[in-house]
Design goal:
The chain is an alpha/beta fold. It is built from 29 helices and 15 strands. Strand 13, helix 19 and strand 14 form a beta-alpha-beta unit. Bound molecules: zinc ion (ZN). Zinc ion (ZN) binds next to strand 4.
Length: about 850
């Protein structure tokens, strides 16, 4: 969650009192109506009143078991799991007086109309369907944003590995093929082509790659090539110690060589930032009529975004919706517990029957880790000491008008190598940083000295980031030796100057920071107010330009920034970071566009997110057109702050980091579940900063079926061992009592969420990993039991069907579910898949 340390200003971000408050008294300024944050939280009082309602309801029920036509209109959201479907024969027995007494107490639905005593079902179902329609609308909104920003499976040329063919829009989801896709067409085609796989759970063995037109892209070439399927780490660089800073010349076959990279030519289209602060791309070969050129790609405008955001905020703040979602989530979690009780032994048997594979050799990706704190403290300390011993005469910094050698720096600190210890380094985040993000950021300074941070942890300093590059290589070698652990490291682009990208790319290329186990994300710290205060930028638009202009330039003509072009091929996506707990003061009723944003205060989270999203969307469309890889947006979100942070991420983001606040916003959590939005969680990091370990919602999210993974965030501050990711899994396994099957599922999730190329993911997860449920699983690679994924898939389908159908659920027991699934299966091809899954479930559950 941290701000990258590479900015010394990040230490102190004092809240500044705006001297000029509002902009909207200026004439003729285009302004944006930004929705107010609404309360989507579901707190203690709401839970209590829900409980009271329930108790009363049950109390009233006891007396009347006789069937009756009366029903509890207002409680539709509260008792879904027991209420029968609207129909002439079966209606919940209730008397009209009950309905009214409950109504008066129902604080959650003040605006709802009282049911007509003589037509209860229709009102009940219409209320209910309105509620479900609002959920469906939210899901559709997210689909729109994902489609337009090209963040789905099949949108990135890196997904095309020679086996994967194009899939059409109705199948493309963010984390794979959409779970509710009708794969029967594929199934049929597949039967024509090859003998289908006959395992019980693999009922959907859809050969999706046999469907659709030929792929729009040539197979993506990963350079340097990934290792062959069976490989062992070899010490190709001899002994890598800190003294041996350049790899020995024994060039390995998979070593990166900039000269071998192909740099494509230019493109005739042009780009320009528009009045609203979004880069637009124009097709100059077909100029529009008249003066007005139309942008080539349809990017949602900021007004549209705020209208949509407002809609979702309204939905998640609605009382009955909150209660409904709270109910469903509880139901889902309990259902998982039930599933575990029934299938624990079967899962264990399945896992035992897999040769070779176990927790240690399933692939894991650290989906959220900041590069400059990717090494542990012991490692950094060892590195600093060896530098002091072996190269004390390196000129490392220019300070106060003088060039200082490393020795002189340490003399000025009155320290020798011998005296340095973990304790003097003082970079661990302890109890003193809990709820003190400001203090935490200071922890990035070794020995509390920003000078050492400048020397050892910066990519752009007097020694051109040489020490950090050497340190990075060492961490990479540790990762490669571990073989099964992989990282997505965040590097910072601040947006203070336009040449940051080139410097960063040159640092990567010059130092050959390439590893099979590492991909990069770019994090944009939201530090507008800091840059504004020290004069680096005038308006918010300056930041947008500094961050995005070089990317559009390199997309138009890679020859303009060749190193950047090559570096970007290993960049997975974007992140944005800062302390979310900072109060967002609403100084504007209406917000100005970026070029007019010149107050001292930083724009709110939702505004930042829009400008990240819209420019990435525009960029992605152009890059895809050119056959260059695209980027996803995976911001830090929901670590603290308001519900609108998570809501804006719901619309715009591929996946998020943290998300711990979802525990308080049930409706949004339900939406995250339905869309299977990836959440990279870091309980150890939260434990040091925002939420104690035992209260972390990770185990609940996991039970519910959210797409969660484990990540380390900042090993330098939080972890003790050489393998921080394993440490993270280990603590979670101990405290949350996660069985091996769940650890394997978390590891599988982490690979799916990650941005590793299709070719790599196939090797790690199975040939058709993107198919929903058990069909996409290969237990020989993932060690996740098929029945686990069949259960997850079936459960998700039921929820999606519930929301789509807009009808009340008719779930009374597991067996009833299975039966109804089978009954419905006969009607539509879509459900034949559900039936298959249901059968597998039924077999798994009742065959013993
Ligand atoms: Zn982080």
């Amino acid at each position: 969650m941290s701000i990258d340390p590479t900015s010394p200003e990040a230490n102190s971000t004092p809240e500044q009192i705006p001297d000029v408050i509002v902009n909207n008294d200026r004439p003729h300024i285009p302004e944006l109506r930004i929705p107010e944050a609404r309360d989507g939280f579901f707190g203690y009082t709401e839970e209590k009143s829900l409980q009271q309602l329930e108790e009363r309801y049950l109390l009233h029920r006891r007396g009347s078991d006789a069937p009756s036509d009366k029903t509890a209109g207002l409680l539709s959201g509260l008792k879904l799991t027991t209420i029968p479907p609207p129909g002439p024969s079966t209606v919940t027995p209730r008397s009209p007086t009950d309905a009214h007494s409950d109504t008066d107490d129902d604080e959650n639905s003040p605006n709802r109309t009282h049911p007509e005593p003589h037509k209860p079902e229709s009102i009940l179902s219409s209320e209910f369907s309105t509620l479900l329609q609002s959920f469906q609308r939210c899901l559709d909104l997210r689909d729109k944003y994902m489609l337009k920003s090209r963040q789905r499976l099949g949108d990135d040329p890196r997904h095309y590995d020679g086996h994967f063919h194009q899939i059409n829009d109705e199948h493309a989801g963010v984390a794979g093929i959409r779970p509710d896709s009708d794969l029967s067409g594929f199934l049929k085609k597949n039967q024509d082509d090859q003998v289908p796989n006959n395992t019980t759970e693999n009922q959907e063995n859809g050969g999706v790659q046999d469907e659709g037109p030929s792929p729009p892209f040539n197979p993506w070439k990963i350079y340097p090539e990934p290792p062959p399927p069976h490989w062992h780490w070899t010490d190709k660089e001899k002994v890598v110690s800190s003294s041996n800073r350049h790899p020995s010349p024994g060039q390995a076959a998979d070593e990166f060589n900039f000269e071998e990279c192909e740099i494509p030519g230019g493109h005739e289209w042009s780009f320009k930032i528009d009045d609203t602060g979004v880069y637009q791309v124009y097709d100059d070969t077909h100029p529009g009529e008249g003066e007005t050129k139309k942008p080539a790609f349809d990017i949602p405008g900021i007004r549209e975004y705020f209208v949509d955001l407002d809609y979702v905020l309204a939905v998640i703040a609605d009382g009955p919706t909150k209660s409904f979602a709270f109910r469903r989530l509880k139901y889902l979690a309990s259902k998982f517990t039930m599933y575990s009780l029934l299938n624990e032994f079967q899962e264990l048997t399945d896992m035992k029957s897999v040769p070779h594979r176990d927790f240690y050799n399933v692939r894991k990706v650290d989906t959220h880790v900041h590069h400059s704190s990717s090494m542990n403290q012991k490692h950094l300390l060892r590195f600093i000491k060896s530098k002091m011993k072996r190269s004390p005469n390196d000129v490392v910094i220019f300070r106060d008008g003088a060039y200082l050698t490393l020795e002189q720096v340490f003399q000025s600190l009155k320290l020798t190598a011998y005296e340095l210890s973990i304790d003097t380094l003082d970079m661990h985040a302890h109890s003193d940083s809990f709820h003190r993000f400001d203090k935490f950021n200071l922890k990035y300074n070794p020995i509390g000295e920003s000078r050492l941070r400048e020397i050892f942890l910066k990519t752009d300093n007097y020694i051109r980031g040489r020490y950090l590059a050497e340190l990075t290589r060492e961490v990479m070698i540790d990762l490669e030796q571990s073989k099964y652990q992989n990282c997505e490291w965040r590097l910072s682009i601040y947006g203070r100057s336009i040449d940051e990208w080139d410097k960063l790319a040159k640092w990567i290329v010059r130092n050959k920071l390439y590893s099979h186990n590492v991909r990069w994300l770019i994090q944009i710290p939201r530090l507008y107010e800091v840059y504004k205060a020290n004069g680096s930028v005038k308006t918010f638009e300056d930041i947008v330009i500094n961050v995005f202009q070089p990317l559009f330039e390199v997309t138009k003509d890679p020859r303009s920034h060749p190193e950047l072009h090559v570096f970007l091929q290993r960049v997975v996506g974007f992140d944005t970071v800062d302390d979310e707990s900072k109060v967002e003061r609403r100084i504007h009723k209406k917000f100005p566009y970026p070029r007019l944003w010149d107050t001292n205060l930083s724009p709110p989270y939702s505004y930042w997110v829009y400008y990240m999203f819209a420019n990435i969307a525009s960029l992605n469309n152009w890059r895809r057109l050119r056959g260059f890889n695209t980027f996803v947006f995976r911001p830090h979100c929901g670590e603290a702050g308001d519900t609108d942070h998570l809501t804006s991420a719901f619309l715009t983001s591929h996946s998020i980091s943290h998300g711990i606040l979802l525990r308080k916003v049930p409706a949004l959590q339900y939406l995250f579940y339905l869309k299977q939005i990836g959440i990279a969680m870091s309980p150890l990091s939260n434990n040091a900063l925002f939420l104690t370990y035992e209260r972390n919602p990770l185990p609940d999210f996991f039970k519910t079926g959210l797409n969660v993974s484990l990540s380390t965030d900042d090993p330098l501050q939080f972890h003790f061992t050489k393998e921080p990711l394993l440490e993270e899994y280990s603590v979670a396994a101990h405290i949350y009592k996660l069985p091996q099957s769940s650890l394997a599922e978390l590891a599988r999730n982490s690979v799916i969420q990650s941005g590793f190329e299709m070719e790599v993911k196939r090797h790690w997860l199975g040939h058709e990993w993107y198919l929903p449920g058990a069909a996409g699983n290969d237990i020989n690679k993932t060690n996740v039991p098929d029945i686990r994924l069949a259960f997850r898939h079936q459960t998700l389908l039921e929820e999606l069907n519930l929301v789509r159908s807009g009808e009340m659920p008719q779930i009374n027991s597991v067996s009833a579910e299975v039966t109804s699934e089978q009954q419905r299966a006969g009607k539509s091809p879509r459900n034949s898949l559900d039936a298959g899954a249901a059968r597998a479930m039924a077999q798994a559950q009742y065959s013993r």
